[in-house]
Amino acid sequence: MSDMAIQIRNLVKSYGELLAVDNLDFDVARTECFGLLGPNGAGKTTTMKIIYGKALPSPNKDTVIDIFGYHPRKDALIIKAFSGIVPQQDNLDSELNVTDNLLIYSRFYGMKARDAKSRIAELLDFMELQDKAKVKIRELSGGMQRRLTIARALINKPKLLILDEPTTGLDPQVRHLIWNKIRELKEMGVTVLLTTHYMEEAFQICDRIIIMDKGRKILEGKPHQLLSANLEAYVMEIYGATKERIADSPYINRSGIRHESYQDTMFVYSNDSEKLSGCAEALHISDYHIRQANLEDLFLKVTGRGLNELQ
Q1: Does the predicted model carry a pTM greater than 0.85?
Q2: Can you name the CATH fold of 233-292?
Q3: N or C of the chain: less Cβ packing under 10 Å?
Q4: How do the residues of the chain divide into helix, strand and coil, expressed in percent and rounded to 5?
């Protein structure tokens, strides 16, 4: 048995003249959490739809797609049977209550009523929705609906869980709860594939990530290793017109200093925080902020700060 849950080679998907996925390669190991990051239109959701058989790849003799030993073109039903899918938007039946939403979904997998009720009780406990079993969907908060959608994706005890932006729009408490649940699922042996626009989320829960742009892979690896290999350790943000006061400063032009501007903010990077402090000597404390560089800084470095035409 291969250690890889997913193997993708030379994946191509086009919609007319639009090349949504451009010769994409990556592997996902069993029981790891793997993240696809990229701007809107980067090809993340299209890639995931191909993996679980909702979209077909464009013809390409060099393409390889292996999902636990199956190909979505030939084995889409098998892949769907062992997968759980959480789409970007919750699509629960608002006319039904929490339990009935899960009970109806269980029938797609041929579960017996007794087994389904037992599994539903487990999932409501797991997602901390025990006291909402008989509540109508329209009476749930957005965070509760998202947790229910994840519970629904787990009804068949999937070995592959696919999450498309699982915590977008949720408050920090719910987001952290979902992160913890994803970690628990990994410990249970579930392989997790997700897309997210929250760089902190990817850093916190993903074992490995790829950063995509315009259908192509730009970087791949463990988040902390990508940071240390591709970005300075510290960044100073200088706000508003204040940035003009140090644009010609000798500190800015010293070796080991890199800077860029976007709209009304200057970003000054260095591996030496003391050098950044030197740059700030002429500034008021409220005019700047020195912090450790993070995954969002790397994301913006490799994909650009401006909006592309698809965003």
Answers
A1: yes
A2: Alpha-Beta Plaits (3.30.70)
A3: N
A4: 35, 25, 35
